[in-house]
Amino acid sequence: MQNAHPLPARVAGWFGLVAHLATLVWYAASGLLAPGWAVLLLLLVWAGLLVVAIVLLRRRPAYVPLVPVVAALFWFGAISAGEAWLGWTG
């Protein structure tokens, strides 16, 4: 049985998954700026995006590299909003 997805799509999918795992460093280090409840919410969002990445890896692997981009934008937006509106400081 042959895999339905071409090799470049599968490689892109695995690259995207590894890149998403790399964003965990930012999410885990958020405690330097954000309160504990916010870090917990951020980690839950990260885990949800991991589930999305795994589902995409199985169904549409070429789209997986978008997941770490969304993760990075969400993290930056959440931290920036917390600093601007909630007074989070490092």
UniProtKB/TrEMBL annotation:
The keyword Membrane applies. The chain crosses the membrane at residues 12-29, 35-57, 64-88. Keywords: Membrane, Transmembrane, Transmembrane helix. This is Uncharacterized protein. It comes from Polymorphospora lycopeni.
